[in-house]
Amino acid sequence: MKIIICPDSERVAGVAARLLADQVRARPESVLGLATGRTMEAIYRRLVGTVRAEGIDFSAVTTFNLDEYVGLPGGHAQSYRHYMERHLFAHVGVDPGRTHVPDGAAPDAEAQAVAYEARIGRAGGIDLQLLGLGENGHIGFNEPLSSLASRTRVVTLARATLAQNAGMFGGDPSHVPARAITMGTGTILEARKALMVVTGARKAAIAARAIEGPVSATVPGSALQYHRDCLVLLDPAAAAAL
Ligand code: GLP
After folding, report:
1. Which residues does the UniProt record annotate as the domain Glucosamine/galactosamine-6-phosphate isomerase (predicted)?
2. Which of 65, 67, 103, 165 is labelled catalytic?
3. Which of 27, 60, 146, 241 could form a disulfide with 142 if both were Cys (CB 3.0 to 4.6 A apart)?
């Protein structure tokens, strides 16, 4: 793992956006693995600005998002498909047919997960995977005790995750869907490059466990210590316990 501590969270977002933009400029047909969550909003805002200012061509880029809530169709305001359209896809000229988010409304979620994994393979794998870190150490929706070798599948969300994400559902954890489709930790580790972004004091303790602690299924983010090309960007608040 390479660790960079930026002076503040805005600069974290700027560096992450720069790396994504440079990836696409160097290889216009890149396959990007994308993430959602509050941390990513600032990154996508910066990326949209960079793409517009520098005229970066996203039309040949393929994207695969990490996860989606089971039961939410793509048009639902809290779905991750909707999040991606709003924060990135609508603004960078990506070919809609090349964007992939698991279909949370698929009648057979397990089959959808298997098909999603196969689609990543057919695209040639992921060149650069963007990742956040959950307050409980999850990556994607791989909750603590997920197998470090897991593949794309249906998971039940941890109570801590329901609480962490309740803000998007009117503040009530019981309104957050209980299940999700997520790329597995094993799937994530196969990306050629990984970029994990962690900001804010609430993540300080778990960032230290993921980066410096033993590799353990109790902290799925720690699996990235095994990745051969993983960069972690932090702001000083998130790096406070390193
Ligand atoms: C969410 C997502 C993750 C995300 C993480 C952190 O539940 N499934 O992909 O990276 O939790 O979210 P945030 O940036 O809002 O703290």
Report:
1. 11-227
2. 67
3. 146
